Amino acid sequence: MNTLLLDPKKDKNTIEYAADILKKGGLVVIPTETVYGLAADALNENAVKSIYEAKGRPSDNPLIVHIAQFEDIFPLVKSVPDNAKKLAESFWPGPLTIILPKSDKIPHCTSGGLDTVAIRMPSHPIARAVIKASGLPLAAPSANISGFPSPSKAEYAFDDMQGRVPVVIDGGDCEVGVESTVITLAAETPTVLRPGGITVEQLKEVLGEVLVDDAVLNPLKKDASAASPGMKYKHYSPKTQVTVYRGTEKGYIRYLLSHKQDGMFSLCFEETADKIPVPLITYGKKDEPLTQSRRLFDALRELDEHGAITAIAQCPSQNGLGLAVCNRLFRSAGFKFIYEAPIIGLTGQSGAGKSTVAEIFAENGFTIIDCDKIAREVTDDAEVLKSLSEQFGADILTEDFKLNRRKLAEKAFSSAENTNKLNAVVHPAILKKTVNAAYALSEDNIPCVIDAPLLFQCGLDEICCLSVCVTADENVRLARIIKRDNISAQECLKRFSIQPTEKYYTDNADIIINNCANNDIIADVRCKIKRIKDLYEKK
Ligand code: TXA
Ligand code: MG
């Protein structure tokens, strides 16, 4: 079959020509605001069967029926509940599909054997014009070969459907780029089966309670029945094996650096592009899900065009339209993920009780990187010792050239200037050791906590996905340090005076934990840490 690519702006009779084909039971690819659709008369069994054939679609995966005006819904469903009217008023024409019990007019092949039918009123002027001109409700799945990414450009629909349909109508690039939101009103509570152009938040504003089917972000569980048959099938998958990286931007770049190989591409946000060490395809901006949804399917096709073997994708946020982007991306990856184990920063003033909090993190499976310990170890390093004796005098060394810690502390903590001198020598060495240790753990998928008094001052918080500061009243801290270090109150207060204020820590930290060490507080700390753990626990 010869396939024409027609543009109504140039080819004057396109709409009438397409309507004619549809009335005769033929197929036409039409543009919609979501993706291109492969349309046929929804009430004509043979026409509908030819849709399944052209796409290579399993016959139990039902089609969406497209209408041009609200009244057209009545003959297609058993009844139109108030909720459906409210949704239609708010979101039609537009990227929302509503599922209702079907009328007898809908053939079984259109509804994939189900007793419900999916109805949508698209907003694209060409789609609406074709439906109107044909006078038919049009069944139209996305115009791609089953399993591949949906087409959001006429060329892609043409590539997939060439030789299978007489006409593809070019209506430009699709505005939304991913398919409509599918909501069922045939369930007890309205439930989103597929997220799309209308967000869950928007639906809740109109309906109140709205559920989101578990299979939206998770693979369908074994033996579970699919609320929507589309959930069962491999979807949106290019030939390239996509894997989704779930972690920070820094971790993502690090992963690419340490795993790069021939044929590996990055599927990343525009803002990250200039930091990526492998060939890349971008899909929108980090915090703008509409730019992502518009690009995602094209980007997946471009990976194939570039001959990518594997692609590691940056993971979008799940808010608003981001849920639809995640749903398509996760499915295109067959739910293959790389999880980044979290690196958490822990800090606070002397005596605030960081060690106790670190112990609770350890109980929860975190490995603790103790920067004080690393600081002691780096002073064993000959280079560091040499620099220190140059700065503070040879008497900071013992006769056998070991560090006299007490002496160094005395000198280094005597003034802010001296403390700075000490820091300039030891901080870079500590930093390097700490960062290496944290990255090594994260790469082995082991969550860790960097216990660092100078977390913010050294910029170590930069590699952490979360920073936690521990606080305690000054008198509590004082008593703890006097006891721990066996020093006078005066000496202790002097140390405190050259440390940043509590406010400095609490202003910089993501989470504040007060630790006066009474039982209630410890229980509260345990709860908080458990929550942090759950936050990052992979499924
Ligand atoms: O944006 C869209 O909705 C596009 C454009 C062309 O309108 N169409 C589209 O159709 O995405 P399709 O066939 O690719 O996806 C329809 C989805 C499938 O996952 C199918 O399983 C589900 O809707 N669906 C259709 N009827 C259903 C029903 N009665 N019950 C549950 N799920 C249904
Ligand atoms: Mg589809």
Give an overview of the whole structure.
By secondary structure, the chain is of the alpha/beta class. Helix content is 38%, strand content 16%. The protein is built from 18 helices and 21 strands. It has helices spanning 14-23, 45-55, 82-91, 125-134, 154-161, 200-207, 249-259, 289-305, 322-332, 354-363, 371-378, 382-392, 405-412, 416-443, 474-485, 489-497, 502-508, 519-536; strands spanning 4-6, 28-30, 37-41, 64-66, 96-101, 116-120, 138-139, 167-169, 181-184, 191-194, 211-212, 241-246, 264-268, 280-282, 310-314, 337-339, 343-348, 367-370, 448-451, 466-471, 511-514. The strands form three sheets. Strands 1-8-2-3-7-4-6-5-9-10-11 form an eleven-stranded mixed beta sheet, with helices on both faces. Helix 8 (289-305) packs parallel to helix 9 and helix 12 (382-392) runs antiparallel to helix 14 (416-443). The chain is elongated. The chain starts with a strand and ends with a helix. 46% of the residues are buried. The mean pLDDT is 93. The protein binds threonylcarbamoyladenylate (TXA) and magnesium ion. Magnesium ion binds next to loops.
